[in-house]
Amino acid sequence: MTEAHVENVDEAAVAAICGEAPFINASDLTAITRGMPYRPQFNAEYIGKLREGGVTAIHSSLVVWFWDSMTPAVKRLSSTLRFLDEHANDLVLVRTAADIDRARSDGKIGLIVHFHNSSALEDDISMVATFHRLGLRVMQLTYQGRSLLGDGCAEPSPGGLSAFGIKVVEEMNRVGILVDLAHAGERTFMEALEVSTQPVVCSHGGVNGVRAHSRNLSDEQLRALAKKGGVLGIMAKADTLVEGGATRGATFEDYFAHLDYAVKLVGPDHVAIGLENGWGVDNGQLQDMLVDVILHTDKPFVRGRIPRDYEFDKYYSAQGVNDTSTVKANLVREMLRRGYARADMEKILAGNLMRVYAQVWKP
Q1: How far is residue 140's CA from residue 178's CA, in Å, rounded to a whole number?
Q2: pTM of the predicted model, to two decimals?
Q3: pLDDT at 112 over 90
Q4: Would you tell me how many other CB atoms lie within 10 Å of the CB of residue 35?
Q5: Is 218 exposed, middle or buried (0-12, 13-18, 19+ CB in 10 A)?
Q6: What pLDDT band is residue 247 in, cutting at 50, 70 and 90?
Q7: Helix (H, G, I), strand (E, B) or coil at 119
């Protein structure tokens, strides 16, 4: 990366990079469902958007909310595997880094099973290996609140990694599930880095150096993550990018403020894209989800923060990174404008995540 900015970018160069470089979104919320049936919200239109956008693979969050205990998690995962069988011409389950390369060669999109929370384990460590056999490859230790493993970023009196959490991190390392520290409280975050013998990721977040927010990382956290060989996926969620973003939205410039900051602080080897957007979530669903979050956590969600007339498509994600079909080209174009070297762009788009996958995942 250089400091040189250019006004006019060669669109042929944008098209060439988009056609040749893989792209992984480390946080796609499309699979989120509430209650029965446990069916992903993917449809032909969204698969078309993924194809149009040149998306190589996504982290698909199947377990998120506080009510996602073992039984609904297994049902949701079972339904997703069935869905993948039904759409085998378009989607493929990713178990190894080589599967991503193979899917791309075959003209398919890789689906990486991701748990946004560890609630599905309940108190049974044997479920780590079981979920791995079923296809789980990335799991967060916490969501917003307190889990059996540790405390999330919204706990008002946060502790660190629990004794059970230490055992789970060790077991995830053993079987080959990537530890995800997104939503973790700072103490849990730092202690998990100490315990893990493998690189970890923060699949979706921002940086406190640009916007102080409970979901963003301090410079100390980001440096520690990089020292471990890990990666931060820069999130598109407006509220984490800029003050007042929840009700006013955010710009493409706001997004790049976080990406540039992280690259300058720890280098291009430790930054990726983790948008936390997707398809099929509307304002009504968001309100329902927030009700449960409010019941379980203190911050950053409080009653009345998201008004009932909130326009999800307009305000949830920053402009320019809110549409799956255009985000890759927009990112490439802007990185070219800002003077990023192609090798660094390819690391950020997918290479850094691929490096971590290859090191951590086991068949």
Answers
A1: 9
A2: 0.93
A3: yes
A4: 8
A5: middle
A6: confident
A7: helix
Give the residue-averaged pLDDT of 36-57: 79
What does the pLDDT average to over 306-333?
83
Q: Which are the contacts of 107, defined by CB distance < 8 A and separation ≥ 6?
A: none
Asked if 141 contacts 173 with a C-beta cutoff of 8 angstroms, the reply is no
Radius of gyration of the chain (CA): 19
Q: Which residue has the tokens 């780590």?
A: 128
Tokens 């993917």, residue?
42
Secondary-structure breakdown of the chain: helix, strand, coil percentages, each rounded to the nearest 5 = 45, 15, 40
Q: Helix, strand or coil for residue 246?
A: helix
For residue 39, what is the DSSP state? -
The b-or-e profile of 171-182 (16+ CB within 10 A means b, else e) is bbbeebbbbbbb
Q: Exposure of 6 by Cβ count < 10 A (0-12 exposed, 13-18 middle, 19+ buried)?
A: exposed
